[in-house]
């Protein structure tokens, strides 16, 4: 079952490194403004987007499996039908603690696989909203 408890969400928000799958270079999109906000709060943001040349001054990775840095949270800004594949990539990584899908993005079956792999799953919640609500 996806994480619902505020104390557990606070614990997750105390982690430091977020890989944003579907991070956008377009300033007005939520997939850009949310990670930008989280960067301003001190999080390390690792953009993952095979179609962008630069986001936040760095070249984004093409896929989650190519990320060289350690990752605490995988934040998903992709359609629900793509969550399963992203979940599989996250499960393969020993460093990932949490897979978080943004508002409107759900995949209960992927969530069950993530949890079976001893990782936490947050579904259909906005990082920025939850940060402001619980940490701000």
Notes on the protein architecture:
By secondary structure, this protein is of the alpha/beta class. The protein has one domain: Rossmann fold. It is 34% helix and 15% strand. The protein has a 5-stranded parallel sheet with strand order 2-1-3-4-5, sandwiched between helices. Strand 1, helix 2 and strand 2 form a beta-alpha-beta unit. Helix 3 runs parallel beside helix 4 (108-116). The longest helix is centred in the N-terminal third of the chain and has 11 residues, at 30-40. It is globular and about 35 Å long.
| CATH topology-level name | Rossmann fold
The count of domains is 1
Main sheet? 5 strands, parallel
- Structural class by sheet pairing and helices: alpha/beta
Could you give the distance between the termini?
A: 26 Å
Low-confidence runs (pLDDT<50, min 5 residues)? none
Strand content: 15-25%
Mean pLDDT reading? 98
> What share of residues is helical?
25-40%
Adjacency order of strands in the biggest sheet:
2-1-3-4-5
Summed up, the helix count is: 5
Shape: globular
């Amino acid at each position: 079952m996806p994480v619902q408890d505020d104390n557990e969400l606070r614990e997750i928000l105390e982690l430091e490194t977020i890989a944003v799958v579907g991070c956008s270079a377009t300033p007005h999109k939520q997939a850009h403004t949310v990670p930008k906000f989280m960067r301003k709060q001190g999080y390390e943001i690792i953009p993952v987007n095979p179609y962008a040349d630069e986001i936040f001054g760095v070249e984004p990775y093409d896929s989650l499996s190519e990320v060289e840095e350690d990752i605490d949270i995988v934040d998903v800004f992709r359609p629900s039908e793509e969550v399963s594949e992203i979940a599989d990539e996250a499960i393969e990584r020993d460093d990932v603690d949490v897979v978080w899908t943004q508002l409107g993005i759900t995949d209960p079956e992927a969530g069950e696989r993530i949890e079976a792999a001893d990782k936490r799953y947050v579904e259909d919640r906005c990082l920025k909203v939850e940060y402001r609500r619980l940490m701000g």
